[in-house]
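Lab notebook: predicted structure, single chain.

Context: the supervisor wants predicted structures on file for every construct in the current expression panel, including those that have not yet been purified. This is the next one on the list. No modifications to the sequence; it matches the entry in the shared construct table.
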Amino acid sequence: MAIHPPLLQPGDTIGIVSPGSPLPADQINLGITILKSMGFQVITGNYVYASNGFLAGTDRQRAADVMSMFANPAVKLILPARGGVGVAGILPYLDYRFISANPKIVSGYSDVTVLLNTLYQNSDLLTFSSLMLLNFRMDTPAYNYDQFFGMVSSASVPKFVLNPPGIPLVGKVPGRVSGTLIGGNLTSLTDTLGTPYEIDARSRILFLEETHEPINKVYRMLNHLKLAGKFNDCVGIVMGECTECGVSYGKSYDDLINDFIVPLGKPLLTNLSAAHGTYKAAVPIGALAHLDTQSSNPSLAIMEPTVSAPASA
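Prediction complete. Output recorded below exactly as produced.
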């Protein structure tokens, strides 16, 4: 069973880091202002505002910021400013044993996917494919906050990964399976193949989503995962949105799911609103889940606490 980080409560401290690409200072400051208005304390890493081209500082600098947050006993949530590119560059410089001994909530998506899954695989830490600092804005849908805080501020079980009202989850291949949830952004997961941080899908439920890629390239990455054995290894598949993914050669994202994913024969849930879309479901990476695509109301249920409650006085 994964290590459950302590839950987030009003007044807790949130540590902001930039593990990948830089985020403009005005957007960082806006997110911090909104977090403070919600009643949280906020601290920033030394390189949060750094910019080195498409990276926010060197790999070692960005890794040092992440480790400083794990080392700070006051910090309960480590919140990346954004993803972008470059998160994989910090992985060799993290102390995974120390992280296991000092668990924190870590949330994000996009290129942060590699950090989330590596922390689970190397430190046994349950993480969250959910909000980043750039998502704390005045126009953020209430659904996004409800999903995020529902996962990180309550130890109740079961929890359900739900879409907003009016956007149905779709069961494409019927079945009922249980397994640990892993995954996230398709590009980021494909980039782990052949590295020490390669995604391990054995007996797990694999969640995938993508953004701003033509469908022929999405096919190429899915086929890469297939050739690497990841679809053989997993017990079930959850497909999120492919936001702003254009039709290629007359094929849409739905066509690709029907032509490529459905024939794999694994229980398949589609149309999950998550990550790059307007609506962002919170998906706990490393949590035991039950996938039901057989009933009339398909569901993804989280069967273990995603955070730990404070000890009773």
